[in-house]
Amino acid sequence: MIQDKRFVSGRIKSIGFAVKGAYKLVTTEHSIMVQFSLMILMIIAGFYFHISREEWMLQILAFGLVLAIEGLNTAVEKIADFIHPEFHNRIGFIKDIAAGAVLFAAFSAIAVGALIYVPKIFNF
C-alpha cells in the first residue's frame, strides 16, 4: 500500500480506516456489542430523564472512554494472539492488564451513570 502524503486526502483515508475499524469492532466483538447496546440505552435514558448539557457531556465522555479502551484491549488481545497463539504466562499477563484498564473505565462509567440517574430515578 502506498502512503498518501497529501494532507487532506490522507486525512480522509485515515477517517475511512477509523470508521471501518469501528464498524468491525461493533459487528464482530461481543464485549463491544454489549457496551454499544448499553450506550444506546443510556442515550435513550438521557432523553427520557431530560438530563442537562453537563450530564450529557459526562455521559458521552464515559461511554466514549469505555468503548475506546475496550477497542484498545481488543487490539492488544488480537496482536498478542497473532504473535503467540499458544498460551503463555507473559501474554496472559499483558492481556489481563489490558482487561484491567477496561474495568477501570467501566467502573468510572458506572459511577458517572449512578451520579446522573440515581437521583432522577429515586427523586432525590
List keywords for this structure.
single chain, 124 residues, mainly alpha, Helix Hairpins
CATH level-1 class: Mainly Alpha
Provide the residue-averaged pLDDT: 94
Number of domains: 1
* Major beta sheet summary: none
Head-to-tail CA distance between termini: 58 Å
Q: Give the number of DSSP strands.
A: 0
The computed structural class is mainly alpha
Q: How many individual helices?
A: 4
- Give the helices and strands as they follow along the chain: HHHH
What's the CATH architecture name? Orthogonal Bundle
Q: What is the strand content?
A: under 5%
> Helix fraction?
over 70%
Shape: flat
CATH topology: Helix Hairpins
Low-confidence stretches: none
| Rg, Cα atoms, Å | 18 Å
